[in-house]
Design a protein that fits this description.
By secondary structure, the chain is an alpha/beta fold. A five-stranded parallel sheet has the order 2-1-3-4-5, with helices on both faces. Helix 2 crosses helix 10 and helix 5 packs parallel to helix 7. The longest helix is centred in the middle third of the chain and has 18 residues. 32% of the residues are buried. InterPro entries: GDSL, Iah1-like, SGNH_hydro_sf. Pfam families: Lipase_GDSL. GO terms for molecular function: hydrolase activity. Keywords: Hydrolase.
Length: 268
Amino acid sequence: MMTSGSCPAAPTTVHPPICPAGATGGSQGLARPRMVLFGDSITEQSFCPGGWGAALVDTYSRKADVVVRGYSGYNTRWALFLIHHIFPLDGIAPPLATTIFFGANDAALLGRTSERQHVPVSEYKDNLKMIVNHLKDCSNSMVIVLITPPPVDEEGRERFARSMYGENARKLPERTNEMAGVYAGQCIELAREMHIPCVNIWSKMQETKGWQTLYLSDGLHLTPEGNAVVHKEVVKTLRDAGLKAEEMPYDFPHHSKIDGSCPDKAFQ
């Protein structure tokens, strides 16, 4: 017999906490939204220890799933082959937010060792525009963040090449900081034209003295300190777009809301 105010006995059949199709979770939504990081190796490596993607997971813990879709060596031309697979127009729910971080490979110089990755700067801008337009077709509420290519430390790239290939290392730089800046400028211009936020990593990193070795591990890819800069700037941009982690709901009740003697109430 159950007395007034007591908690009913736990059911003998335990149902998994799956949100049925079409159901809403109110302030305690069961379906955790996604943030997708789309880019090249700098995105692919973002879940390494000290990576900016891993830090985003921590920032949005229990608020959003951070999904990495980074492809080492890819440029925007090759990225266009992926967008319908990664961001289908029907089926799964579109991401809450997406970062687009390409340009380091597009800016590889013609006539040098990485020229097959080169994409002319005008095409780079057009490709980014096609990616953004596709994401807008997926969702008119998705937060889309462009990230410029990072700066390039040409001496660092030369040291890296010598460490890898010795005397066979290339004699001329495959990338220059000046050219990376040209591509960064086109990324910023497109963001302005399409009224979406842009993280100008190319300029931001160069504000710090000694950025070449502080933020870049091989003249191009990021150190933990460089990853921290990207994380800080991306979080600031997401917050400015309304995605403040502290204001986003948990996917299930916080433990402080669960009554130890009658836990089922918190999940109703």
